Amino acid sequence: MPRIAVDAMGGDFAPDEVVKGVARVSLESEIEVVLVGASDRIQALLDEGPYNPELISVRHCAGAIGMGEDPYEALRGRRDASIVVAARMVADGEADALVTAGNSGAAVLTAAKNFKLIRGVRKAALASVYPRETEHPGQDVFGLLLDVGATIRCDANELAQFAIMGSAYARRVSKQPAPRVGLLNMGREEGKGGEVLVEAHRKLRALPSIHFVGNVEGNDIASGRADVVVAEGLVGNVVQKLLEGLGQAASHLASQAANDNWRWRLGMAMLAPGIEKVRDMTDFGSYGGSPILGFERLCIKAHGRSSERAIANAVKVAAKAVRDRIADEIAEAVAEIR
Amino acid sequence: MRGREARRVDAPDVPSADPPAVVFRWDLDKTYLRTEFESFRRLVLIPFESATDKVNLPAVPQLMGALRRAALARGERPWVFFLSASPPQIGAEIRKKLALDGIEYDGIVFKDQLRNLLRGRFRTMREQVGYKLGELLHARRQGPAAREVLFGDDWESDPIIYSLYADVLAGALGGDRLAALLAALAVDRESIDRIAADAEVLTAAGPSPDVQRIFINLERRTPPGRFRVFGRRLVPSFNYFQTALSLYEVGLLDAVGLGEVARALHERGFRGERLRNSLDDLVRRGHLEAETADRAILVLHRDGRDLQSPGERTLGARAMATMLRLRRRMARSGSAPDAPTAIDWEKVVSEWMATRKP
Questions:
Q1: How confident is the model at residue A292 (pLDDT cuts 50, 70, 90)?
Q2: Can you say how many angstroms the Cα of residue B203 is from the centroid of all Cα atoms in its chain?
Q3: Do A244 and A310 sit in the same domain of this protein?
Q4: Chain B: nearest CA to A23, how far in angstroms?
Q5: CB contact under 8 A, B285 and A43
Q6: Searching chain A, which residue's CA lies closest to the CA of residue B226?
Q7: How far is A48 from chain B, CA to nearest CA, in Å?
Q8: Least CA distance to A86: which residue of chain B?
Q9: N or C terminus of chain A with fewer C-beta within 10 Å?
Q10: Contact indicator for A5, A97 with CB cutoff of 8 Å
Q11: Which of A52, A58, A94 faces B310 most closely, judged by CB atoms?
């Protein structure tokens, strides 16, 4: 069984929700977890709920990196920060993967500092899983968007590598034999988007190992047209934040309207079970976390606002990715095109 | 015999505590046996189970055997009693199961549920505190005045019953206060009077060795923090390796016995990491000294079981572990591990009853 190092002090609701999530995993699976953080605090939290101690160990460290801290500054000289200690455990082979709900920048930087890039991979990519429509039965209700912030600008080769990595991940984790890969662009025509995107399109079209469906536009992201959407970090990050913001705005507008008018309120009450179902289906907590792809070692970045459920699912995703040998799959796919 | 609801079986002629003795009292279901009474179907099937159908919890027979041998090696007479709320009708198969597991014992008490049923005493059939506490005190009066170790689980009321019993023996509880607590616990008047009388006799006899440890098997995975109110005398344990470690620390189990328990668990699928995690958990919860943990790791290593975690192979992790140990030791300095904790019984009972309200 895989051994997962979890940054117990990372996240808006850490360590409470992180520890509870790990306790939950210990009762629901055979995954072994190492909680990295302030051991006294961790044990006090474990004591208050059910857990299986046979599957949980604790690695004490005193430091932690706050969600609002500048990652470069925060990581400087902070060797005892929980995320750093957890990453070192993974790098040293004491654990098979890292899960953190902490500061995204710190997660990417720590991974970059401690993990080796897969041979041939030029840049790692931070992926993001998002809810979307499905076009055919069996299609995953979550799509994969990468990169969302590990890079800023990329060249065509790097975008092609992101496509290969995302495709390999979706193949294993979403159990789709040939995930559809799209390149995020300002139009579907292959000549759109400038030199880098045109070149990336040409390269992706020529790759036999991936199912490239061409350029996808902003309005395609939420459809099931592509299972993996590739973008450079700057654009991907803007899209990710936009998707989150839209969801929050829609929810806010609906409750505001319901407050203003009793008919709306009644309508909302009648729709409540359906809304709840959709919310549950699209809740980031149900997929847990997204991978940082391109390293020999695996890191799953859970959402900063992760609940117990989200953390539990992130740990399960990490264990599945280890079992499915995602890093090897990516290495093989990258080697094929070298 | 007074109007008791229990039927005693296999009751031996117990002399006073000469030679020195140690008493081990065990619950049966969920403590020694993996009895499944969660569903009505399983409950109905229990009387029809043969001895070979009954499954013991991992490493319990080995622990019982090792405790007996260790006591004899120390020159102490080990007394082993079982106290169960199951009916005596299943006694024959239980005795066969004990024989199959090679467990030597000195007595078993069952609850005469048939008699309660025929008399229409339905509340008594479900009542645990009055029944078990009454039986424990009665057995103590008849048995050796020796130190005791109690084994129960988190399914019914073992933690509260055993702790009440321990406090009565320690002279910390009795008289009107005990009677009021039992009344609050919904124990019937007849049982309260009997318990109070037995408690008075035992207290009047003067100080004697009391309960050294209470082990609660967390079969339901009850959060261990909930038992903190009972003090450090009560050790909530997730498996019998944790129980064995605690017994090893207080000298009731020797290194050979600890190895036997670890081996038995290993045979039931507990790999080295699981044992190690269990050990560390017990240390973090404050129920095992780090020094004992180190000794246990060494002992088990000699026995061919590697409990060293991967992190301990690095210098940094070893230094960190040493620092943590020192910190824990400093935090605990001034309070002996076995110092009795004064239990706030009124609060405990009120909270206990609140969790039992429908």
A1: very high
A2: 22
A3: no
A4: 11
A5: yes
A6: A48
A7: 5
A8: B311
A9: C
A10: yes
A11: A94
- DSSP bridge partners of B56: B33
A157 to A191, A203, B76, B93, B173: CA distances (angstroms): 17, 8, 78, 73, 79
Kindly report the CATH number assigned to the domain that includes residue A114. Answer: 3.40.718.10
Best to test chain A binding among B229, B281, B313, B327 (most A CBs inside 10 Å): B281
Domain span including residue A107? 1-121+294-327
Q: Clarify whether residues A86 and A156 are in a common domain.
A: no
Residue A42 sits in the same domain as residue A132: no
Q: Do B276 and A56 touch (CB under 8 A)?
A: no
ipTM, interface predicted TM-score of the complex: 0.85
Residue A175 has pLDDT above 60, yes or no: yes
Residues in A closer than 8 angstroms to B222, CB to CB, are 50
Which residue of B278, B314, B317 is in closest CB contact with A53? B278
Strand order in the sheet with B147-153: B6-9, B107-111, B77-83, B21-26, B147-153, B211-217, B234-237
Segments in chain B below pLDDT 50: 1-5, 17, 334-337
Tell me whether residue A333 is in a domain.
Answer: no
Looking at the fold, whether A114 and A127 belong to one and the same domain comes out as no
pLDDT digits 0-9 by tens, B79-96? 999 998 888 888 888 999
| pLDDT (tens digit per residue) in B171-213 | 999 999 999 999 999 999 999 999 999 999 998 887 788 899 9
Round the CA-based radius of gyration of chain B to a whole number and report it.
21
Reduced to 3 states (helix: H, G, I; strand: E, B; else coil), residue A309 is helix
Per the structure, how many domains does chain A have? 2
Considering only CB atoms, B277 lies closest to which of A55, A89, A93, namely: A55
- Residue appearing with tokens 């609002």: A68
Chain B: closest CA distance from residue A49 (Å): 5
